[in-house]
Amino acid sequence: MATGLLRWPVDVLARPKVLVASRADEETDSVAHAIVTSLRISVFYFANLLLYALPLTIAGFGVVNESAAPEGFAAFAEPLVNDPDAAWQLSSALVQNSAFLFVATVLTFVTFHLGVVLTRSSDGIVRSLRTVSYSTGIYLAVMFTVVWYVATAPGIRVADEFLLALQAEFFYFFIDLVGVNLELPGGRPEAVDLGRLTRTGQAMFVVLLLSAVYYLYVLYLGARISHQSTRLEAIIAVFFVTISPAIYVLGVIVTSTL
Amino acid sequence: MTKNTTDETESEGGSSDSITDQSGERLPQTSENSAGRTEQLEVDRGRGQERDETTLAYNDSSTEPRYEAMPAIRPVLIVLGSVLGAGLVGIGVIASSPTLFGGPEIAEILVSAIAILVAVIGLRLASKAMVLSRTQYAIYDDTFRREYELFYRSQSREIPVEKLRGHEYSQGRIQSLLGIGSVRLLTAGTNRSLGFIEFEHLDDPERVREEIRAVSTHEEFE
C-alpha cells in the first residue's frame, strides 16, 4: 500500500496514462453493475472534491458568521453537534466552495461525452464518467486551487490582477462578438504591467498552464483508451471540452439580455 | 497509423469463446468441446505409443527456451530525441520572439512550462528505455515469459501456453520504419489476473509469431 501511495504522485505527473488505463477495460455488463461502478467513481470524485473544498472552508472562505440554521437543519443537527448554527455555516460554505469545481466537472462531462457520442466512438457513459472524474478530480482541482491561492495570497498582487483581467477580457470578447450592450461590474479591464510580476506569481502561472495541459491530455487519453477512439475522434472530443467555457459565457450573456 | 493485425488473432483461435482446430475450423470453447477433446486423447492413448510419446515430448516442462530476445530501444530513443528537439525548437521560437506571445514575462512563463513538460516526458522515456534494455522475452514449450531486473528490483510475468487465446501484432509508424513490431499475447475473459503479456519492439516479430503458432498448435494436440 505504501508503494502504491508513493507511486500515485508519479503516475499523476509522469504517467497519467496509467491512471486512465487502470480500469479502462472493465466491462459493465448489466445496468446494476453500471450503477455500482458509477457510484464508486462518484465516491472517488466527491472525496477529491472534499479534499479541495475542506481546506478552503476551514480557512474561513464562504463562511457567513451571522447566518442562522434553518429549522429543519437545526432539528437534524442538534443531537449531533453542539452548535447547529456553526454546523450550518460550515456546511453552506463547503457547498459554496465546491460549487464552481462541481459545475466545471458537470460541464466537462457533458461536453466530453457529447464529443465521443457525436464522433460515434462512445463505449458507454461509465467510461466517460471515469475519465472526467480523474481529469477534473485531480488536474482541474489543481487549477482551481492555484487560482484561489493567487487570488488570496497577499504577496501575489500582479498575478491576481492579470488573472482577473484575462477572465474579463474573455467575457468582453464574446460580448463584443454578440454585439450586446453589457458591462461587467468592474468594467473593461486595464492593461496589467507584468513587469511587476513576482517569481511566485510566474511559478503559479506555470503550474496553472501545466495543469490545463494535463487536464486536456487526460481527457484525450480517456477518449483513446476508454472509448477506443482514433486520434482525430479524441481530438474532437477534447475540442468540445475546450469550447465549453465559451458556451458557458455565451449562455450567461444570452440569459442576461433576456 | 498503427497497423494492427487482429484478423490474425481470430484465425489463431484467439477470441475468448473460440479455438481453431487443426483443420482450421473454428470450434466453440464449451464444456462439451473440452469433453470431446478429452475423449479424443483417451482414444489416441488406446491406439498405441506413438501419440503418447509425441504428447510426452511436449508435456515435458522445458527449461530451455525455444526463443529468447530483448526488445529494441531504438524506437523509444527516436521518440525521446524528437521530444527534446521539438521542445528546444519551441523554446527557441518563443525566446527569439517574445512580443509574439504577449511580452517577455509571458514568454518566460511559456518557456518554463515547455521546459518542465519536456523534462517530465524525457525522464519518462529515458526510464522506459532503461527498463526495456533490462527486459527479456522468452518462449518455452509451456509458457511465455517477460521479465526485467533493474536496481535490485525484478519482475517476471508468465502466461501458460494453455491459457493463450490469441495474439495481436501491431506496428507503429516509427516501428515500421525500423522493421520492428510488437506482439501482445491475449488470455481469455473471466480470470482477470492473467491479463496479457506484450512483447514490445521486437527486431524479428515474424519469428515470434511463428514460435507462438508452433507452441499453440502443439498445445492443442495435447
UniProtKB/TrEMBL annotation, chain A:
<feature type="transmembrane region" description="Helical">
    <location>
        <begin position="43"/>
        <end position="64"/>
    </location>
</feature>
<feature type="transmembrane region" description="Helical">
    <location>
        <begin position="234"/>
        <end position="254"/>
    </location>
</feature>
<feature type="transmembrane region" description="Helical">
    <location>
        <begin position="203"/>
        <end position="222"/>
    </location>
</feature>
<keyword id="KW-0472">Membrane</keyword>
<keyword id="KW-1133">Transmembrane helix</keyword>
<feature type="transmembrane region" description="Helical">
    <location>
        <begin position="131"/>
        <end position="150"/>
    </location>
</feature>
<protein>
    <recommendedName>
        <fullName>Yip1 domain-containing protein</fullName>
    </recommendedName>
</protein>
<keyword id="KW-0812">Transmembrane</keyword>
<feature type="transmembrane region" description="Helical">
    <location>
        <begin position="99"/>
        <end position="119"/>
    </location>
</feature>
From TrEMBL, chain B:
<feature type="transmembrane region" description="Helical">
    <location>
        <begin position="106"/>
        <end position="126"/>
    </location>
</feature>
<keyword id="KW-0812">Transmembrane</keyword>
<feature type="compositionally biased region" description="Low complexity">
    <location>
        <begin position="12"/>
        <end position="21"/>
    </location>
</feature>
<keyword id="KW-0472">Membrane</keyword>
<feature type="domain" description="YdbS-like PH">
    <location>
        <begin position="155"/>
        <end position="212"/>
    </location>
</feature>
<feature type="transmembrane region" description="Helical">
    <location>
        <begin position="76"/>
        <end position="94"/>
    </location>
</feature>
<feature type="compositionally biased region" description="Basic and acidic residues">
    <location>
        <begin position="39"/>
        <end position="54"/>
    </location>
</feature>
<protein>
    <submittedName>
        <fullName>PH domain-containing protein</fullName>
    </submittedName>
</protein>
<dbReference type="InterPro" id="IPR005182">
    <property type="entry name" value="YdbS-like_PH"/>
</dbReference>
<dbReference type="Pfam" id="PF03703">
    <property type="entry name" value="bPH_2"/>
</dbReference>
<feature type="region of interest" description="Disordered">
    <location>
        <begin position="1"/>
        <end position="63"/>
    </location>
</feature>
<keyword id="KW-1133">Transmembrane helix</keyword>
<feature type="compositionally biased region" description="Polar residues">
    <location>
        <begin position="28"/>
        <end position="37"/>
    </location>
</feature>
